[in-house]
Structure formats: C-alpha cells, structure tokens
Amino acid sequence: MSYKSFLIPALLDASEIARNYFGKTTAQLKKDNTVVTEADFAVGAFLVAAVKKEYPLHNIVDEERGVIDNASDFTWVIDPIDGTSNFAAGVPLYGILLGLLYKDKPVAGGIALPPFYRIYTAEKGGGAFCNGERIYTTREKKLADVIVAYGFNSSFGATEITIQEDAMAFTRLKYKSRGIRMTMNIFDPMMVAEGGFGVWMSRSTKIWDNVATHCILEEAGCLYTDFYGNPIDYSNWRYDTEKKFTVCTANPELHADTQKIIHSDV
Length: 266
Hints:
This protein is α+β, with helices and mostly antiparallel strands. It has 7 helices and 15 strands. The protein has helices at residues 4-21, 38-54, 84-88, 160-176, 187-194, 207-219, 252-262; strands at residues 27-29, 35-37, 59-62, 66-68, 74-82, 95-102, 105-113, 118-123, 128-130, 133-135, 148-151, 180-181, 199-205, 223-225, 245-250.
C-alpha cells in the first residue's frame, strides 16, 4: 500500500497553516523547558484530523495531544512544528514531520520544510524523494570530506556525563571533518538525505523527531542508529512518549568512520 497520496497533500496543507502563523505567534514554555506555540496546536490538530479521516483505525502519537491507542499495528507519529524555538523567534528553519510505524518499525514518512517549499517522502523499500525527485545521501566515504550536523539541545536536565560526552564527540568530529553545523532541527537530517551534509547526530530527540526521519534517511542510503551504533527501539511508544533517543545517521562508510572516532579512547 502506498501512502504518498496521503502524505503529500496533508503536508502541503499543514505547511500552509504553518506559514500563516510564522512571525505572528508567541511562545510558551512547557514543563520540560521546551517551547510551544499556537502553530504547534493548529498544525497538530489538522494532521490528527487528517489521519483520523483517512485511517480511522490507526493509532496516533502527537507531540502536543499525546496518544490515541486503537490497538492497531499501525501508528502515525506527528511532530507539528520541529524547531519551535526557531519558529517562535522568526527564524525560518523548522519543519513538520508525519511518520508511520508498522509493528513498531518505520515504514513510511513525510517531512515538510515550509520555508523552502520542500516535501520529503519515503516508503520502506521504495526510495526517498524530495518534491517528487529521487534523492540520495552523499557517496563520500571519508569523514574528512563531509560536513557533520550535530544537534545540541538545551542542557536543562542533562547529566554531567552527557554534557562531557557531547563535548568530547563534538571536539573529535570538529577536527576530523570539514566542519560542524548546528541548526538543531529537521533541516539537518534532510540535508544528509539530499547529500549536502554527510552525518547527522543528536543525543536528545523524541519519537516524533525520529519515525519519519528514520524512514527517509534509510531510503536515501543511510544507516540510522542510536549514538552508539545500536538499532533504535520504538516499541514503548504507548507508555513512554518522553523517552529520549540518541541518533547517528550517515551512509555505511561514514557511519563506521564516525563511530570509530567518537568512541575512540585516543
């Protein structure tokens, strides 16, 4: 079954909603010290309604509205505005994510970058696309030849060990790559999918940051693992939507090179 006929129109309409709010909304802090705006609720409400209409028996996880559990094998995972801090500050680096799990495995995903009028889609085994054109990650095999995107979030709630590990990995990658970029939103992994950046890493993401992203990056030719190179487990979505995920994604050669460097004792 193809999901593009649903993903693309839904994300086009959601993008229009987001653009209408951009520059006209105010930010509020949530309990976890992250930012939320009226746009998050408006886009989320639209996408939840769209999924309910098209797939009424499927489960839904929405960042702001929580879990709708219909005991289905299919679960849609929604991030209405990724990069809300940017959005609220008037910085046009943000996105909208709509991913699908089947038995806790990513099988389809759509991501919009509304300021750039780009819609990314992928279905397991069917390749990754941007505005209908097939996309691939870079073919470079050496970390020294690519730019690394490294996502840092607020250190609120972070342990001293996590901060030290971030700093150590950042320093090692800085001197082994062509440079590091940090926009801290979905723009970064989509640039990896298109082959602009070579690697994307983050130690602080949630399930809604990952499902659509995971599918698109894999279909673009990347390995998509946790920070330590292990498979990512999404099976606990019903009970712990606040679980933090770490991510390391790149083509197989760059992924191996990155893992070697960040976990080196040297």
